[in-house]
Amino acid sequence: MIARVIVDVPTRATDRPFDYSIPAEMEGWVEIGSRVGVPFGGRVLQGFVIGIAPFADIDVKRLKPIAELLDHIPPLSPDLVELAQWISEKYCCPWTTALQVMIPAALKGKADSVVTLSEEALEDEAGLLLEDAEPWFQYIRQHGEVRLALLQERFPGAAAGIKAAIQRGTLLEEVSIRDRLKVRKVLTVFPPENEAAVLAELAASSSRAAKQQEAARYMLENPEPISLAALAQALSTTTGTIRGAAEKGWLSIRETEQRRDPYAGRGFKRTEPLPLTEGQQAVYDEIAETLDNEASRVFLLHGVTGSGKTEVYLQAIARCLEDERQAIVLVPEIALTPQMVERFKGRFGDAVAVMHSRLSNGERYDEWRKIREGRAEVVVGARSAVFAPFKRVGLIIIDEEHESSYKQEESPKYHARDVAVQRAKQHHAIVILGSATPSLESFAAASASRSQQESQAGASSSAKRGATLLPMPERVAGRPLPKVHLIDMRDELKGGNRSMFSRQLHEALLLRLERGEQSVLLLNRRGYSTFVMCRSCGYTAQCPHCDISLTYHQKSKVLRCHYCGHSEQAPEKCPSCESEHIRFFGTGTQRVEEELAKLFPGIRVIRMDVDTTTEKGSHEKWLTMFGDRQADVLLGTQMVAKGLDFPYVTLVGVIAADTSLHLPDFRAAEKTFQLLTQVAGRAGRHELPGEVIVQTYNPEHYAITSAQHHDYSAFVQEELKHRRFMAYPPFCRLILVTLSHEQLALLISEGEKLASTLRDLARAAGIKSSDDGDGSRFIDILGPVASPIPRMKDRYRFQCMIKYRGNVGAADLLKQAISLLSGSNGQPPVTMSVDVDPQVIL
Ligand SMILES: Nc1ncnc2c1ncn2[C@@H]1O[C@H](COP(=O)(O)OP(=O)(O)OP(=O)(O)O)[C@@H](O)[C@H]1O
Ligand SMILES: [Zn+2]
Ligand SMILES: [Zn+2]
């Protein structure tokens, strides 16, 4: 047998499987998903086995054997290997990069596994187990704990049997990873094996060694194993004393693996399913029915803020678990607060694994193993949890599906939403995309599938491709959405108020202080200081060709468009009203905090922004403090806008709604609408009614007025018009190619070559080069133009944008073009980085 191996060299030239022979002693151990060390170009490199085949593609004599097996139980399953291939094709990244992102960082070195008998096997004295006839099993019985590497050596041909025993749970696998990270071992005290003998001995022994006797008695009375350190502390003695007792045989001390549980010792109050509201019930029923049918389907759960989406998730998960299938819950990194975790741990207890970036490598590794070994059935995590190594996925939930943090910004630049849909297909699982403000892409997909359903009744196969819309338009218990007031800051300026607080917001804050209620203040800091705006009339500089804001370059005093490269001199006076109050815009949270202290002496403010939340656990600390009403105001950037559910928050203030509106990004209006709607949704979620004050220079902009009226569909209608007119997603798709090099001249000429090669290839394939607005397929190559960040780490950067619609094979064309530009080493002369469906264009 031979193994097809993807070696861990992330270049285009090596991005294909290489064949290796499987040495006899590894036969049966090497599987799809195994990590191996293989000779490659004179070195031994790490790689993943992605296929096993009877024959090699190359001459058998040239075939080299696998040098090393890095873990005995493969870290990846065949379905994940397949998913990695899909990612590498869809996102134009090397296969190895996609494979590597699926395993925890801790698992990079060689793993050493030890197996022991499970409790059940230990108790089986009659020898009734399936495995009892096996010599290797007897060997483990004799030795208690055996390294898998040793079993492999001693019992050739036993691989399948041993793996099956691990699967069944007769054997327990414990892994330690050499070099990188040690599984934490602790010395644990156990009661003596022969209790009666020890009791007799203790009774006969003199009063000498009283402390040792006390330890022995303690273990006889409390036979639960306890760590050596903890026992010493409990008995106020030294570990030496207890070791002494062990030497006498009065108790025993063994090394055991300690699993890191970041939430250990924190009692999560158990919650019971709530009786669902009518709206929740309708949605739940449809989900439950599809779950029972084991059909793969995508639902878009469009529920307003406070409509009780989480309860629907929880009950859908419960249904999924009943069927012995597992559930993955993705939440934005920023929302992975204890509040969120608590809701899931509260309902499902220890069956919940948690994965987010603030865990240490060791903690993350332990959570991953908890999933792989079937000790967890639900994972709540940030985007990479979509790769959780569950065996039977039944349900994948993506909460706040519109969040851009589901897109990974470094390679592999995957979008967790699209990966989730693909993974669900593999498992016949369902996907629930939940949001109060769905992304236009998801909403358009759901509407398209609905109109398809309506127009061709019975054509279920085409309907399945889109998403099914599940609306929840009302808050639970008939609570109203908060009233939103818009304050025109131009009027404030005219009225002589130069402060960052309007008179209305000032008064509203004062009222909350008097009443002892709480306020959330949002400073929209995206796009801080990058665009030019007139403070008198609200004018902003736009690109004449692209319908997006121009970016201000302070050094050169030039305004530039990042899509088409258009540039112009920054104006001194407002071109619209001639005012001189034209300037680039932005305020920092620190300044707001100072201002608050000045205006409201004694006010207690918690500031949450990148500066105050870098420390581990700081997020949590601030939110707990706020929840305990130790502060009057929670002031922050985007991170205060999401997912929070505090009963005493009755006021939400938005200091400047516009900063994100004029970013040079076609999603600027969408992002602004989402942010305002989300933050407004923090107010009045419980008994006390809420109020929202939004300060803006653009009170008539549809993103702001729609948010004011909680009117998602008004926003979508208007926004879709713009997107259609400018041919932006969801009416087309984008691929962004960023080229970089130290030499500017080379970069420009390669950029032009790339663009012209792409155009030639498209023409040869007979694809139209421009959109004629009829919805037919086209591919348009924009650029090259300088990137928004034109130089980074002494490298110049240029970019090409590929706009396309329909099945044009854009990723393939791009791959072809890049390989045509590549030299004999398989690489193009300048670095090319590809971002498919880019979220951040800045
Ligand atoms: N069936 C129910 N009966 C009573 N209370 C409920 C019910 N369902 C949810 N709630 C409560 O309603 C509040 C809002 O629910 P939840 O936080 O799930 O809303 P959401 O839709 O996720 O909102 P957001 O999008 O703003 O996060 C919570 O306090 C929740 O406990
Ligand atoms: Zn003006
Ligand atoms: Zn432009």
Describe this structure in a few short sentences.
The chain is of the alpha/beta class and 842 residues long.
Unreliable spans are 178-182, 456-464
Output the CATH class name of the largest domain.
Answer: Alpha Beta
* Name of the CATH homologous superfamily of the largest domain: P-loop containing nucleotide triphosphate hydrolases
What's the CATH topology name of the largest domain? Rossmann fold
Compute the gyration radius: what is it? 31 Å
Keywords: ATP-binding, DNA replication, DNA-binding, Helicase, Hydrolase, Isomerase, Metal-binding, Nucleotide-binding, Primosome, Zinc
Binding site for Zn(2+) 1: 534, 537, 574, 577
Biased composition (Low complexity): 445-463
Region (Disordered): 445-474
Describe the structure.
The protein is α/β, with parallel strands linked by helices and 842 residues long. The protein folds into 6 domains: 2-109, GIY-YIG endonuclease, CATH 3.40.1440.60; 112-178; 185-257; 278-477, 3-Layer(aba) Sandwich (Rossmann fold), CATH 3.40.50; 479-526 and 588-725, P-loop containing nucleotide triphosphate hydrolases (Rossmann fold, 3-Layer(aba) Sandwich), CATH 3.40.50; 733-836, Ribosomal protein S10 (Alpha-Beta Plaits, 2-Layer Sandwich), CATH 3.30.70.600. It has 26 helices and 34 strands. Strands 15-16-14-17-18-13-19 form a 7-stranded parallel sheet, with helices on both faces. A hairpin with a 4-residue loop joins strand 23 and strand 24 (558-560). The chain is globular, with a radius of gyration of 31 Å. The structure holds adenosine-5'-triphosphate and zinc ion (2 copies). Residues 543, 545-546, 561, 563-564, 566 line the site of one zinc ion. The site of one zinc ion has 8 residues, from loops.
